[in-house]
Specification:
Blueprint: H1 3-32, E1 43-49, E2 55-61, E3 64-73, E4 82-90, E5 99-102, E6 119-121, E7 132-135, H2 138-146, H3 148-155, E8 160-166, E9 169-178, H4 181-187, H5 199-224
Antiparallel strand pairs: 1-2, 2-3, 3-4, 4-9, 5-7, 5-8, 6-7, 8-9
Amino acid sequence: MTAAFVFGLIAFAAVIANIAVRDHRRAVTARRELFDECQGVLDEERWSAGDDGFPRIEGRAGGRFAKATLIPDTMVIRRLPQLWLSVTLLVTRAGSPSLSLIARHTGNEFYAGAPDLPMRIDPPQGLPLDVYIRGDGHGAQMLCNGLTTELVDLFADPRVKEITLTPKGVRIVRQAAEGQRGEHLLLRQVVFGGVKVERAMLVTTLGDAERLIAARDALMQERAA
């Protein structure tokens, strides 16, 4: 192996490394813009971003503390990377059971709360059989049955992935985007190609979470009467 060949390999590796660094910086910059269309949706909003560039918004919606985050998911099998929009509304309801539902469950949903709950619950009539449900006891089963109408409506949207209710609040996870095929297959990079989270999607998901809270409150008041 000649010295010229070795130097050529080193130069080639340096070029590839520089391209990778450049592309990573561009990807991080693009990620920070994913929520640009959602400015002003929350009151008293505060923006932040992690080292990976994915942004977070915290603020208030209808007087409640609200948080919107983006979850990049490369754990999907035989599919492109997914970008999930996670919307949380915090509201304390002491004594309320915990309930978590996952659509098209694969076991790779690292962001989901369902695996931490002790009891498996069969989907009530109307929900697809592939919805994976867990709760923290008999009360969770009753809550699931009582919210069937709302849950069926939500899961009618194929982008809805997870719904979780706890005594501290409600969270809904919805598909926001899918990664680009070329970057993922060739370079294993998570690139979402200039996609921005639609303002309407965030507004809709906040409204869905608020309706779940109202339905749960009505159900608990009815059973307490």
